[in-house]
Hints:
The protein is mostly helical.
Amino acid sequence: MLNKCLVGGLWFFFIAASPLLAQEINLERQQQLTHIVKQDCGSCHGMTLKGGLGTPLLPEDLANKSIEFLSYTIINGRPTTAMPPWREILTEQEATWIAQQLKLGSFNDK
């Protein structure tokens, strides 16, 4: 019982803290990450992120995907697909920030 409470508490802390950790990325790096998403991700997912070779990255298309799943996919890529791993140029924190922004639609031109 104690183990379940401990694991549950740690899981809650991780989930609750992850958005806070991602927000610690400075403004200059956020701008660089935005450029990466629009140019590099956009080259496959479409310049407006509405899809292309890769799937659409609009909030409605990502609604059933967790931030953790998206972040993992960004860092590790998708084997047997054209989605490359980005771990060489992005930290997990940066991938989480990108995933959060994708779900919010922050990269979509309004």
